[in-house]
C-alpha cells in the first residue's frame, strides 16, 4: 500500500500497464517485454503481468521472473493470477507469487471465502480481490440483492463491513471492471477508502471519463486504470501509455471538483 501510494505520487500517474505478452517467437516476445517495460515505466503507477500469458509458454515461469526483475524496484508489480483455493493450497500460491516471482501484490478470486484470501495478506503486500469483473456474466453470482432494491457486489458489501481484523482496507483492495460505471459507483460508495484495480479500458471499450467519475476516491486517487492489449499492441507503447496517463490526469481534477 505504501509503495503504491508513493509511486502514484512520484509518477503522478494512476495508470497500470498490463503485461499480457502474445506472439509465437520467444526471442521477439522477450524483447518486446523489455521494450514495453522500458518505454512505459515513466508513466506507470504499477505493472500487472497476467500469469496465464506466461504459463502458456514453455519457459513461462522463468520469463515471468525475468520480467518482474526488469521492472524498476519502485514500481509495484501486481501478479494477476486470480488465485482461489483452500488455505493450505493458497499458502503455496502465495509463496509462488511473493517468494518465487517477487510480486508486491496479487489478484485473488474470493469465491472460496476469507481463508482462501488470508495466506496472501502478508505484511507489505496488497491483495486485489475480484469484486465486480469487467466481463458480463449471464449469472449474477458476484452480486447480492439490497433490501432497498437493486444489487451490489457481494464482496464490496462484505468488505464494507470489514472481512476480519487481518483483512482490512490496508491489505485488501478490489478489482472492479470499467465496463459498468454504475456498478463501479456502487462499489465506491460501499468502500470509500479502498484501492481499486480497474481493467476494461482500451480493448474492452470502457468509458474512461465515466469510470473515473464513478471510481475515484474523494481525494482524486484510489484507482489503478489498467490497459494491457492497447499498450502491448501499440506501435509506440511509450506514447500509448503516456497518452492514457495524460487523459486520466486531465479528467481527475474535473471529477474532484464535481
Ligand atoms: O475483471 C477483470 C479482471 C481482470 N482482467 C484482466 O485485465 C487485463 C485486461 O486486458 P485488456 O487487454 O486491457 O482488456 C487482462 O489481463 C484480463 O485478464 C479483466 O480484464 N477483467
From TrEMBL:
<comment type="similarity">
    <text>Belongs to the OMP decarboxylase family. Type 2 subfamily.</text>
</comment>
<protein>
    <recommendedName>
        <fullName>Orotidine-5'-phosphate decarboxylase</fullName>
        <ecNumber>4.1.1.23</ecNumber>
    </recommendedName>
</protein>
<comment type="pathway">
    <text>Pyrimidine metabolism; UMP biosynthesis via de novo pathway; UMP from orotate: step 2/2.</text>
</comment>
<dbReference type="Pfam" id="PF00215">
    <property type="entry name" value="OMPdecase"/>
</dbReference>
<keyword id="KW-0456">Lyase</keyword>
<dbReference type="InterPro" id="IPR011995">
    <property type="entry name" value="OMPdecase_type-2"/>
</dbReference>
<dbReference type="InterPro" id="IPR001754">
    <property type="entry name" value="OMPdeCOase_dom"/>
</dbReference>
<dbReference type="InterPro" id="IPR013785">
    <property type="entry name" value="Aldolase_TIM"/>
</dbReference>
<feature type="domain" description="Orotidine 5'-phosphate decarboxylase">
    <location>
        <begin position="14"/>
        <end position="244"/>
    </location>
</feature>
<dbReference type="InterPro" id="IPR011060">
    <property type="entry name" value="RibuloseP-bd_barrel"/>
</dbReference>
<keyword id="KW-0210">Decarboxylase</keyword>
<keyword id="KW-0665">Pyrimidine biosynthesis</keyword>
<dbReference type="InterPro" id="IPR018089">
    <property type="entry name" value="OMPdecase_AS"/>
</dbReference>
Amino acid at each position: 500500500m505504501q509503495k503504491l501510494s508513493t509511486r502514484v505520487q512520484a509518477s503522478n500517474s494512476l495508470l497500470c500497464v498490463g503485461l499480457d505478452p502474445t506472439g509465437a517467437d520467444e526471442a521477439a516476445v522477450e524483447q518486446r517485454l523489455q521494450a514495453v517495460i522500458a518505454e512505459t515505466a515513466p508513466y506507470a503507477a504499477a505493472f500487472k503481468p497476467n500469469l496465464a500469458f506466461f504459463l502458456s509458454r514453455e519457459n513461462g515461469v522463468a520469463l515471468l521472473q525475468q520480467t518482474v526483475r526488469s521492472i524498476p524496484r519502485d514500481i509495484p508489480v501486481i501478479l494477476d493470477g486470480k488465485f482461489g483455493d483452500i488455505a493450505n493450497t493458497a499458502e503455496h500460491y502465495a509463496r509462488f507469487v511473493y517468494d518465487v516471482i517477487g510480486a508486491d501484490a496479487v489478484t485473488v478470486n474470493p469465491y472460496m471465502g476469507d481463508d482462501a484470501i488470508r495466506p496472501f495478506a502478508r505484511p507489505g503486500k496488497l491483495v486485489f480481490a475480484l469484486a465486480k469483473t469487467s466481463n458480463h456474466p449471464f449469472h449474477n453470482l458476484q452480486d447480492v440483492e439490497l433490501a432497498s432494491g437493486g444489487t451490489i457486489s457481494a464482496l464490496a458489501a462484505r468488505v464494507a463491513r470489514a472481512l476480519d481484523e487481518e483483512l482490512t482496507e490496508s491489505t485488501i483492495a478490489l478489482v472492479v471492471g470499467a465496463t459498468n460505471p454504475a456498478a463501479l459507483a456502487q462499489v465506491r460508495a460501499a468502500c470509500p477508502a479502498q484501492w481499486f484495480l480497474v481493467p476494461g479500458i482500451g480493448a474492452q471499450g470502457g468509458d474512461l471519463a465515466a469510470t473515473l467519475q464513478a471510481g475515484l476516491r474523494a481525494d482524486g486517487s484510489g484507482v489503478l486504470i489498467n490497459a494491457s492489449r492497447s499498450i502491448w499492441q501499440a506501435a509506440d507503447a511509450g506514447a500509448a501509455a503516456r497518452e492514457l496517463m495524460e487523459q486520466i490526469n486531465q479528467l481527475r481534477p474535473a471529477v474532484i471538483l464535481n
